[in-house]
Amino acid sequence: MSRTFRFAPSPNGELHLGHAYSALLNGDLAREAGGRLLIRIEDIDVTRCRPEFEAAILDDLAWLGLDWERPVRRQSEHFDAYAEALDRLKAMDLVYPSFLSRAEIRAATASPDWPRDPDGAPLYPGGDRDLPAREADARIASGAPYAWRLKMDAAMAKAGPLAFAEQGRGPAGETGRVTAEPGRWGDVVIARREIPTSYHLSVVVDDALQGITDVVRGEDLFHAASVHRLLQALLDLPEPAYRHHGLIRDAAGRKLSKSEGSTGLRVLRDAGATPAEIRALVGL
Ligand code: GLU
Fold this sequence. Notes:
The protein has 10 helices and 10 strands. The chain has 284 residues and is an alpha/beta fold.
């Protein structure tokens, strides 16, 4: 079976050296494996993603020398596929509509001992998890904001113990067959009212639909793989191999952000950098 890799940028800003590293690494690994390289545009947040950013990203990737299969999958064109996956989770009674606002969550989780997820956000306090269906439906019908959350305990009990194949390493050096720990995320958001999916749901649906065998991405997404593995198990989707790579950092050791001027690919290109120099800068 031919191995299939993907680079999956969100078009909410311009690419920086960190993206260039990830994209070039995917390209190199796909070539070495005699496999396929796909680009996927992760634009579910239609308020923050813009066509100009998408065009600039594809232009930068071509300039870097990457060659990928067409057509490019754009997540905003596939909300129906994510809705179908959400319906399956609803049919299994593994999601519930949660109604607490950000401010209410903050107030309910203010204690310094409140458990936090791997990104440092407080776990959802629940409370509305066992709302009778009629009451939840009435609140949704009244226009109350809500998000669909996973009933994490029930989902983990249904799936049983899980692990994923890590060919790179996590932030603490995790490698090989790694135990998935989705419970560290609590009742994660699976879909929102305004955006009827989430990063977690659309990434597992698309990786399966596109036949991705190898997920190569930054180690900041290592812990997310635990949620992805759980969703794959619940939705009967195949399990890709993961390779999380180290992040390119700025001179002060911080993770690069999309607004970072000096490490932006556009700025470097405009200053005369060549694709070969970019490869050297990221250590490839
Ligand atoms: N779209 C995500 C990002 O821009 C990457 C998702 C992934 O590789 O799983 O960080």
